[in-house]
Amino acid sequence: MQLLLTIDLLGRSGTTISQNASAPPGSPPAAPQPWTGPDYNARLSAAQQAFNAAKSAIDQAVRSFHTASKQAAAASSDDHLKNDTSLFGRFTHWVESGAHWIAQRVPLGAISGLLAKVAAVAALLSFIPVLGQVPTRSPLPPRQGA
Fold first, then answer.
1. Which residues contact 12 (CB under 8 A, 6 or more apart)?
2. Distant-in-sequence, close-in-space partners of 7: CB < 8 Å, separation ≥ 6
3. Terminus-to-terminus CA distance in the chain, angstroms?
4. Residue 40 phi/psi, 5° resolution?
5. Which long-range contacts does 103-112 make (Cβ < 8 Å, 24+ apart)?
6. How far apart are CA 88 and CA 96, in angstroms?
7. pLDDT band for position 137 (50/70/90)?
8. From the centroid of its chain, how far is CA 57?
9. If pLDDT is split at 50, 70 and 90, which confidence band does 78 have?
10. Where in the chain are the domains?
11. 2: part of which helix (H) or strand (E)?
12. Is the pTM here over 0.90, yes or no?
């Protein structure tokens, strides 16, 4: 009796493995049939090569980043910026410190909101004529013949 086994991998069929199960011991084994399915070793090798190429590209990008960051750090530490110790430099520093102190401690947002509301009310009130300010004579010239 001969056992036939068909393997279907990824929709590809046609592989038949023959084993002679009823052959007496010591008889020659059945000749294997060639494999007609996908070559998984080749796929694995191609995937490993793609992975290694991507890994080397990432390593090169990281090396470039570190090189650029070292160059930027070296350039920024040697920019010759010094504190201005002249009279004008001290005055501007004092003004900046005062402005910073005011911005940190005074609620400028609340004050500007309140001033905006006061300006809106003043604009509305400007449209209402005041009784003592109503003109008593017409700005038009008098009619001829009247």
1. 36, 37, 38
2. 13, 15, 17, 37
3. 139
4. -75, -30
5. none
6. 12
7. low
8. 22
9. low
10. 2-38, 39-74, 87-126
11. strand 2-9
12. no
Q: Which two tokens stand for residue 56?
A: 């080397």
d(CA 6, CA 28): 22
Torsion, Cα of 71, 74, 79, 81 (10° steps): 140
**Residue of higher predicted confidence among 121 and 146:** 121
Find how far residue 20's CA is from the centre of its chain.
65
Instruction: State the DSSP string of 4-59.
Output: EEEEEETTEEEEEEEEETTSPTTSPPPPPPPP-S--HHHHHHHHHHHHHHHHHHHH
| Contact by Cβ (8 Å): 49, 21 | no
